[in-house]
Every structure is written in structure tokens, then in C-alpha cells.
Amino acid sequence: MEIVLAVMVVLAVAIVAWLGFAQSGEPPKRGAPAPEFALEDLDGGRQTLAAARGARVALVFHPQDETPECVAVVERVAAVAPAIASSGVALWAVVVGEPPAARAYAQAHAPGVRVLCDPAGKAARAYGALVNLGFMKFARKQVVLVDAWGKVERTWRDPVTPAQVDELARAVGVAPSAGPG
What we know:
Blueprint: H1 2-22, E1 38-41, E2 46-48, E3 57-61, H2 68-86, E4 90-95, H3 99-109, E5 114-117, H4 122-126, E6 130-132, E7 137-139, E8 142-146, E9 152-157, H5 162-171
Parallel strand pairs: 3-4, 4-5
Antiparallel strand pairs: 1-2, 1-5, 3-8, 6-7, 8-9
């Protein structure tokens, strides 16, 4: 019995270490240049951070899963997206996945939100949002607000809930509307 317990403890420690190693690191610090990227949107266009210079950009990384917490965040993003867009801020959801899966998820939970696909996870890694389990990669929930000069203005991470999405809306100067979340 003691051997089984010891094996279970060693296995648990190994799993925790593996999960810690799977995390891609920290997001860029406030005031640091936001990492550049070129990602495909669901319409087949390429979006780059450089092309958005002169305007603020809100990047919402999320894992595209069906847990109630993740769905609530994505639905809240969809609810505040029109107000954020009307303030002149580009709002892009970034997912580690291919366009067909991202399209289906966006249609179900975030209609009207511009989704950028990061199949290799390079942008998510650069922003410290990638979780790479080897057999599966995904972005953890994280929001990064980039200023008009391409510098990180603010980051929301661990946890990101609908309340943090409302904080993003207030940070860009709009009142969060009533709706999901």
C-alpha cells in the first residue's frame, strides 16, 4: 500500500511539473512592445498588429472549449464587441486552431467577433497565453490591450471572467452593456 501511495505522489508531482512546463510563460509587460503577428481571420484575410498602428487593439485569447466559464467569457466578449468597436478599438479573438473549428465555435458563441486563427500557437506563445500539452495546444483565457503605438497597455489574466471583459470595455472608454455574463 505504501508503494502505491508513493507512486501516486510521484505521478502527481510529475503531472503538475508537466502542466507547469506546458505553460508558455508570462505576457509582455505593460509598456513593452506588443509582439507582432500575422494571422488569418475567418474571412481568409490576414490581420497584423502593424497594420492596426494608430488604433488600440484588444486581443482576447481563449481556448474554444465548452466549459461554462469559457463560454461565459466569449459570450460577454460578443456582447461588448459593438461598443468596443464603436470606440475605435479593434477587438480580435485569438484562438489556437484552424478556421473551420474556429468558425463553428464563433457562430455558436461569439457572432460578430473577429476571430484570428493561430494554428501553430506562435502568437499565443509570444503573448504568454499558449498551453502546449504535446498532444494538444490551446490558448488560456487572457486579454491584452495594445495602445495605438503598439505597446502593451494592460493585460488581464488568471482568471479572466466576464467581469474582466467589462473592465476592458471600461478601459477603452465604453460602458459595458447588459447582456450575457
